[in-house]
């Protein structure tokens, strides 16, 4: 908000400084618009690894403050419940189910979005993203010990979290046929999916009315 004050007779130099200051204030204004991004992925999918490490993480460094990121590890899995216990079948076998549960447990912690993105990036950048070793190397990104995540994963809590991810994944319309699937503001678009997979930063920036500064990087 600008206020009009009577301008006394001052030196020309002072007027230039006032105008310069006003221009600087205008340039400091930043976009407060938020873009919701849901990312449906799985621990042992090479395309998921590629997207998270080469597209999401670099873009997040530039426009992360304008993103609301929902990371959903589950992928092309299925689930059944028998006598109160969940059973899962994952595209890349039981190790992937284990890896998805480990990440679901980490993401369920009360940590910042930036910490969660860094955690997932770290895990997916390991030689085996489904392994306990990956969690031991990356749990520090959440400010946690690996034991806290293992305790969740080895209890019924981890299965419940993965089942919730399954419900969310299966609710996407149209039905997910490719992993990772990227959804902006809750609405799937094949054009946005293809664009985000190959150039997430550009495609995300195209969704804004008031583009964040990082879009010009």
TrEMBL record:
Gene3D superfamilies: Glutaredoxin (3.40.30.10). It is found in: Secreted. One of its GO terms (cellular component) is extracellular region. Keywords: Glycoprotein, Secreted, Signal. It comes from the Eukaryota. GO terms for molecular function: oxidoreductase activity, acting on a sulfur group of donors, disulfide as acceptor. Its main location: secreted. Belongs to the GILT family. This is Gamma-interferon-inducible lysosomal thiol reductase. It comes from Photinus pyralis (Common eastern firefly).
């Amino acid at each position: 908000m600008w206020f009009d004050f009577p301008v006394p007779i001052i030196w020309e130099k002072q007027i230039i400084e006032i105008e310069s200051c006003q221009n600087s204030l205008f340039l400091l204004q930043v976009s407060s618009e938020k873009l919701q991004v849901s990312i449906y992925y799985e621990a042992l999918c090479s395309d998921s690894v590629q997207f998270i490490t080469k597209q999401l993480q670099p873009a997040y460094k530039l426009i992360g403050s304008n993103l609301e990121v929902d990371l959903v590890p589950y992928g092309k899995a299925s689930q059944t419940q028998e006598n109160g216990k969940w059973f899962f079948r994952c595209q890349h076998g039981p190790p992937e189910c284990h890896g998805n549960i480990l990440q679901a447990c980490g993401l369920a912690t009360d940590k910042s979005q930036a910490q969660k993105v860094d955690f997932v990036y770290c895990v997916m950048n390991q030689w085996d993203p489904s392994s306990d070793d990956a969690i031991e190397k990356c749990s520090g990104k959440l400010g946690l010990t690996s034991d806290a995540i293992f305790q969740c994963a080895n209890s019924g809590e981890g299965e419940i979290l993965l089942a919730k991810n399954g419900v969310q994944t299966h609710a996407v319309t149209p039905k997910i046929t490719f992993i990772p699937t990227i959804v902006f503001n809750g609405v799937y678009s094949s054009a946005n999916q293809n664009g985000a997979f190959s150039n997430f930063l550009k495609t995300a920036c195209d969704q804004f009315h008031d583009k964040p500064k990082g879009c010009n990087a």
